């Protein structure tokens, strides 16, 4: 935390259709993870600033909910067009504040745009259902109505995509919206909201309040907020789910992950290697769907270990804006130290470091938070490392005798975000799909990220709630069901 300086961009808040500088005296530095440079400052806004945003959203709600859904989606069509036009600029911003490569940032933003496209189907997706003559002359219908003011709290690792799991669906269904980005990466949403400002949305429909824990608590406790969407680490997800629940709000809270892939000996080893290499080390391992543990069966133990070690050591690590770079830094010096300490701990607990990315220095970027791809072999299945979310470019290898043993590793994991299998056997794939205890399943897929028209699932400590982000789940989450039973007597129909 620092005091504001005159020279750095101070990220403003966007409330009731206006940009304004926060009145806080506490600011957090935004640092380029590849260069170590401070590039902006995020205000740690206070409860009064949250209240102003919620009041603006509450004032905008009555008129916005009466706006026909067909009219509510028109600004989203404009937004899609603007995001397409600005995708390079937005992706560069993601790379500068988050560290992932420009190519990865662009792929991320495509998923954001895809969610805008899907939310444009709200006039169809929001429809309820009805039945005539539930009793003679009596009809019954279920209609969906928006909740009111809703809020989302999002993490650092997808500054462009994750807000879009919520924002377009929330407003297309008639709610008004408050977003709190991660204080570590506020610039992508600052630019996105500048574009949102030009779409013709009425003031107060979307609001942006930057900050940290104080903003989160003010959102959780505000009586006019009806629903909270959260994505981040498991301890914070649990905290938010409990406090939102205690305050009578609905909540969907996506947490951390420790994703397993099982590699069977009959897998296409070249394809498996290439895909798992991208899943484990892409975005420097800071994806909630990154493969973190590879469980090999039979002779895959040796063939996969050798091929993945070769592929991972060939990855070009550097500043994500430089051409040809395939992997960027981790988010902060603290994160780099934490990841390196976990590698050391794994080694102490019996794992063998077959590829060591610690103490990496990248020429020209000596102040960057670089950890190169790291592979630990023979990680004891019961070690702390096997269960801990590392959130860095580290792949653990575990060997199992058969599928039963491999699935048991997945069962004992506290997380259930994603599980993948590489095989050429349909029967093995079917068994895995049926039994694997995770919400997102990949068969010969390394990052099983659901498209925007499917829910972004998650089980166990990776998700708290019922309805997920994206698609039909998002429509249901942001609406309340109202059931109407109607009787109109015969005498009425005879009168006219
Ligand atoms: P984080 O939990 O530290 O922060 C997430 C959000 O919560 C931020 O906006 C932050 O300001 C706020 N926050 C942090 N600490 C808080 C506290 N004590 N009280 C109230 N609010 C708090 O997560 P992160 O480091 O930004 O993101 C990485 C984590 O997110 C990883 O665990 C990753 O697995 C997870 N993640 C999960 C998914 C998923 O779909 N399940 C997707 C992306 C990221």
Question: How would you describe this structure in keywords?
Answer:
binds nicotinamide-adenine-dinucleotide; 22% strand; 496 residues; Aldehyde Dehydrogenase, Chain A, domain 2; 7-stranded mixed beta sheet; alpha/beta
Characterise this structure.
The chain has 496 residues and is an alpha/beta fold. It folds into 2 domains: 13-255 and 462-483, 3-Layer(aba) Sandwich (Aldehyde Dehydrogenase, Chain A, domain 1), CATH 3.40.605; 259-443, Aldehyde Dehydrogenase, Chain A, domain 2 (3-Layer(aba) Sandwich). The chain has 18 helices and 23 strands. Helix 3 (74-85) packs antiparallel against helix 5 (102-119), helix 4 packs across helix 5 (102-119) and helix 4 packs antiparallel against helix 8 (187-196). 53% of the residues are buried. The site of nicotinamide-adenine-dinucleotide has 27 residues, from helix 9.
Summarize the structure.
The chain is built from 18 helices and 23 strands. By secondary structure, the chain is of the alpha/beta class. Nicotinamide-adenine-dinucleotide (NAD) is lined by residues 153-158, 180, 182-183, 212-213, 216, 231-233, 236, 254-257, 288, 389, 391, 417, 456, 458, 462.
């Amino acid at each position: 935390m620092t005091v504001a300086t005159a020279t750095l961009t101070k990220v403003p808040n966007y409330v009731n259709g206006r940009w304004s500088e926060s009145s806080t005296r506490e600011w957090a530095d935004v640092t380029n993870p590849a260069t170590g440079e401070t590039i902006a400052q995020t205000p740690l806004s206070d409860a009064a600033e949250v209240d102003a945003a919620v009041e603006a959203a509450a004032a905008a709600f009555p008129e916005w909910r009466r706006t026909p859904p067909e009219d509510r989606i028109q600004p989203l069509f404009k937004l899609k067009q603007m995001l397409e036009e600005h995708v390079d600029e937005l992706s560069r911003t993601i790379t500068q504040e988050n560290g992932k490569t420009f190519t990865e940032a662009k792929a991320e933003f495509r998923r954001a745009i895809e969610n805008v496209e899907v939310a444009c189907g709200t006039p169809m997706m929001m429809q309820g259902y009805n039945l005539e003559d539930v009793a003679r002359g009596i009809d019954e219908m279920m209609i969906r109505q928006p909740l009111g003011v809703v809020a989302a709290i999002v993490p650092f690792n997808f500054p462009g995509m994750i807000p879009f799991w919520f924002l377009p669906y929330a407003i297309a269904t008639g709610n008004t919206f408050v977003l709190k980005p991660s204080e570590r990466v506020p610039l992508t949403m600052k630019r996105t909201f500048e574009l949102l400002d030009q779409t013709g949305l009425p003031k107060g429909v979307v609001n942006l309040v930057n900050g940290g824990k104080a903003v989160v608590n003010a959102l959780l406790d505000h009586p006019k907020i009806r629903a909270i969407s959260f994505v981040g680490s498991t301890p914070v997800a649990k905290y938010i789910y409990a406090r939102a629940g205690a305050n009578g709000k609905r909540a969907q809270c996506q947490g951390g992950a420790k994703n397993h892939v099982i590699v069977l000996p009959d897998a296409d080893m070249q394809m498996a290697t290439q895909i798992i290499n991208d899943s484990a080390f892409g975005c420097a391992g800071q994806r909630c769907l990154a493969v973190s543990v590879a469980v090999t069966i039979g002779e895959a133990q040796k063939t996969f270990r050798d091929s993945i070690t070769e592929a991972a050591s060939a990855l070009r690590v550097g500043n994500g804006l430089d051409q040809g770079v395939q992997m960027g830094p981790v988010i902060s010096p603290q994160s780099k130290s934490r990841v390196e300490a976990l590698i050391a701990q794994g080694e102490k607990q019996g794992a063998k470091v077959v590829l060591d990315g610690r103490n990496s220095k990248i020429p020209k970027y000596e102040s960057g938070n670089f950890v190169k791809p790291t592979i630990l072999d023979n990680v004891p299945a019961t070690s702390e490392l096997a269960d801990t979310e590392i959130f860095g470019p580290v792949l653990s290898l575990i060997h199992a005798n058969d599928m039963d043993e491999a699935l048991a590793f997945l069962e004992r994991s506290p997380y259930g975000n994603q599980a993948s299998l590489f095989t050429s056997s349909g029967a093995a794939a079917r068994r895995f799909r049926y039994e694997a205890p995770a919400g997102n399943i990949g068969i010969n897929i390394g990052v099983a990220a659901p498209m925007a028209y499917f829910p972004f699932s998650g089980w166990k400590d990776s998700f708290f709630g019922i309805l997920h982000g994206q698609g039909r789940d998002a429509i249901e989450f942001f609406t309340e069901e109202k059931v109407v039973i109607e009787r109109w007597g015969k005498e009425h129909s005879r009168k006219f």
